[in-house]
Amino acid sequence: MKNYPHLKAVLSLFREDSGLDNEQVSHFLRQAVDKGNIDKSILKEEFKEALQDVTTDWKLIAEETKLLLDPSNYSSSEIADYVKEWLWEYVYPEMRPDTPFILELRDAVLELLEQNGNDWVDAYEMLQTLRLRPKFKELEYFQLWYVDFRANDIARKEIPDKDRLIGYIRIER
Predict the structure, then answer these.
(1) Is the pLDDT at 121 greater than 90, yes or no?
(2) Coil, strand or helix: which one is 86?
(3) Is the Cβ–Cβ distance between 104 and 54 less than 8 Å?
(4) Number of Cβ atoms within 10 Å of the Cβ of 85
């Protein structure tokens, strides 16, 4: 596995125990790039390579960067999804979905949740079902966060020891 020094430096900013919210971490990331401590083009290349390389050990990266308090609770792909949540829009701002897409996604999620009645739905299962629709075939797990759960009366139940994942969702009744 490659070392990815820029990616690891950035992930160390996102440490779970930092107490910082997304906005604060994004500020520090922009500041690190502006000061020349992180080269955004190299970060983008390392991020792309790490995502494409099937040998990337996201658990090891999470351990080395202290990204998560206990990376052993997560699979490598779950950690990769978490990293995408933090970095995707910064590295690929042109790929942020527009409002109509987000509204369509919200409507599709609500439709599927309605079909399930009061049952909890695993967010990864929801993702797989959504990907069957042509509009969402390229949908990434982290993009489910674009659906404002609270504003749409969607209850969320965390997976024990995996609070960085969406977990389970259902219509709040």
Answers:
(1) yes
(2) helix
(3) no
(4) 20
